[in-house]
Write a sequence for this structure.
């Protein structure tokens, strides 16, 4: 059986992890690690970290192999690249800020922004073969 190729493999794993994270809180059980008031990692969230971290490493490895292609795209379209970098930073910033400052439900907006922009970059660079 042929191994799952990049970018389908990490996109599938990340989607699977997001589905596990999206399970309602009443099914997750108690917090194993409390981050702030009303937020923490349950056993189910901790299990979801495994495919999330694997997919993140796989994405980074794939993007590193396509760095020349990405560099050429960034130099050809600096405005679009700046917007992508801005929205990735905004999404990650909202995600981190909501975890530590009790901005309820802003984590979802930040997480979705970060994931969708990252997946967009992965899917665009997936068209190009490794250098």
């Amino acid at each position: 059986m042929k191994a799952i190729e990049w970018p389908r493999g990490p996109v599938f794993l990340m989607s699977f992890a997001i589905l596990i994270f999206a399970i309602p809180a009443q099914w997750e059980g108690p917090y194993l690690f409390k981050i702030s008031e009303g937020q923490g990692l349950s056993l189910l969230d901790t299990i979801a970290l495994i495919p999330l971290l694997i997919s993140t490493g796989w994405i980074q490895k794939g993007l590193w192999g396509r760095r020349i292609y990405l560099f050429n795209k960034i130099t050809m379209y600096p405005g679009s690249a700046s917007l992508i970098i801005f929205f990735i930073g905004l999404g990650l910033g909202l995600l981190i800020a909501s975890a530590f400052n009790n901005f309820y439900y802003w984590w979802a907006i930040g997480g979705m922004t970060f994931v969708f922009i990252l997946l967009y970059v992965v899917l665009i660079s997936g068209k190009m073969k490794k250098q």
Remarks:
- The first strand starts at residue 31 and ends at 36.
- The chain has one domain: 8-22+39-125.
- The chain has a mean pLDDT of 84.
